[in-house]
Write the structure tokens for this entry.
Amino acid sequence: MPQRVLVTGSAGRLGRAAVKALVAARHTVVGFDIRPTPGLPASACVVGSLLNADLLSKAIAGADCLIHLAATPDDAIYPRRPAPDDGDNFESELLPNNILAGYRVLDAARKAGVRKVILASTGQVIDGHLDDRNTPVTVSAPFRPKYLYACTKVFLEAVGQVYAAHHDMSVLAVRLGWCPRDARQVAEIRADAEAQDVYLSPGDAGRFFAAAVVAGKLPQFAVVNLTSRPVRHLLYDLEPTRQLVGFTPQDQWPTGAEEF
């Protein structure tokens, strides 16, 4: 059945992929971003900050499903430089945009009675297991975050679990692989065999979110991994993704990267 879906971060790389697939599946999509969302009419675009409570409550009203993708997408500086040039973007960007906004979005979903929430986490929350070649990493593996950005996603998964347990909603946290945002990132993936095995194409990302919106009988809270088909080695366990969402990736690096 067609649903009304609010997508935060809808103008970003993953957001555009999700919106395209959801519109193609004839869902009613509302995009929320700091800039207009390609592929949506102006009437379906909410432009502003998630920290604007009134704007957020109006955008989420009547939604059947929330896909929360909005975030500052990485650490500004990694690895951290030595003092005195050792600043980071935790307080300036990660704290308000990832932690506070994540809480605000989930609380808005609670108030609006949204019953299904899909949260964008990251494979960076289990990065230490990749370093140790303890692969494929399962969804039950303990957190071993890469750095501060990954820590914000640990929080998002945890607060999602709390809201699922206490507020009658189904929450799916998706540990995403690397969907490049620009030509520089495409070049980084091209030069790194491991990065190619955690690559996530825009097409697979869109198909996953479309499948997750209509997936039935999801647990109260669950975590799944999402990458495209690996080139050499399976680094993230994708079996729970197939079982819970009914999704199997179709693409493989470099499919989808050619647009850059």
Observations:
- The beta strands are 4-8, 28-33, 45-47, 65-68, 116-122, 170-176, 221-226.
- The chain is about 40% helix and 15% strand.
